[in-house]
Amino acid sequence: MSLLRPLPVRTDPARPHRAAADVLVFLGAAGLLWLIVRLAHGTVTAWSPATAPATVSTDPGELPYYAGRSLLRMFAALALSVAFTFGYATAAARLRRAEKVLLPVLDILQSVPILGFLSVTITGFIALFPGSQLGLECAAVFAIFTSQAWNMAFAFHHSLVSQPRDLDEASRLLRLTRWQRFWRVDVPSGMIPLVWNGMMSFGGGWFFLTASEALSVDNRNYALPGVGAYVAAATAEGDLGKVLLAIGVMIVLVVGVNVLFWRPLTAWAERFRVENSEAAQAPRSVVLDLLRRSRVGVLLGRVFGPLVHPADRVTAVFGLADHPLRTSPARRRAGDVLFATAVLTLVGYGLVHAVGFVGETTGFAEVGHALLLGLVTFA
User: Buried b / exposed e across 303-319, counting CB within 10 Å, b at 16+?
Assistant: First the structure.
């Protein structure tokens, strides 16, 4: 009869914790999605330059909404910066001739003050979306983008050109396509510097909120709902208390973004470290531990995992991530001459039109004045 006794049922002690983690992750994702939709709805409202407000309300009750709008712009600029970094830095690292032009251009762009970009782009973005506030939103996002993208592009480019030779040889032996090499070799090997430089660039973007949300074009001032515009309005009113309140809200945003986004990301990026020695103190994150404990990642893998191989087959048309180890010196020299000729032709064409534009508008006397002011700024 003892053989007929039921066996004891084993229970997984981690199952209740996993269920709780699943619930927390699901509620957090649902709340985040609702918040993004709610905030994004305000970016497409009707807008006209003639009736647009020149300032925002300084009611402290509006600060939570303003904080959300500013945070949405920051992350939109970050996403745009990552896309720019992947395309621009990869082209500069993989195309020898293009690197000679792309890197100096990037160096010049990072030296241009943010107000220099705004004075040129605001009118264009407003004309691109007539009757909608989206044009002004794009101008603000682009202004924040200019404070983030250049540093990230330089960091990712350096990771590509300093990639270990073993990874390059493995990519050749495995016959990886360009798409496969980018996502399975290039991005993982450059993930740590990309994340850390992205975090520093994101932090630098907070300093440009006021300039990007309180805009001026054609002698008219426009303001977008945001913490930066709130600071500008409170400063214009001379209300130090409201300025300090806005600064306090920004501190809460910075700490919250660090805890909920950057710290989990830096801890997760440690998996891509290829050095023989590990970090003295590995980053830890409660949020990352919660995500790892939940089964959301497994479910997402089941949904999107089957799309990996079809994407590899579709992108195989871009060719293999391979280049000849040796090229004919005559062919290489001819290519260099053609490339240099094309670049010099474009530069000459641009200079001719730039000289004509200056002569027809401001006059050449203004160039000397601008140069003098530039020297003062440089000093």
Answer: eeeeeeeeeeeeeeeee
Reported as a single tens digit per residue, the pLDDT across 23-68 is 898 898 899 999 999 988 888 888 887 777 878 888 999 999 999 9
Is 374 a residue whose pLDDT tops 70?
yes
Question: If we measure between CA atoms, which residue out of 52, 42, 47, 51 comes closest to residue 73?
Answer: 42
Q: Is 183 helix (H, G, I), strand (E, B) or coil?
A: helix
CA-based angle 36:42:45, to the nearest 5? 145
The helix (H) or strand (E) run that includes residue 222 is strand 220-223
Q: What count of Cα atoms within 13 Å lies in the side-chain half-sphere of residue 199?
A: 19
Which residue type, as a one-letter code, is found at position 345? T
Cβ atoms of residues 49 and 130 within 8 Å: no
Phi, psi of 299 (to 5 degrees): -65, -40
210: Cβ contacts below 8 Å, ≥ 6 apart: 228, 229, 231, 232
Neighbours of 101 (CB within 10 A): 16
Closest by CA to 191, choosing from 160, 213, 164, is 160
Residue whose structure tokens are 């053609």: 338
- Cα separation, 321 vs 178, in Å, equals 4
pLDDT of residue 252: 94
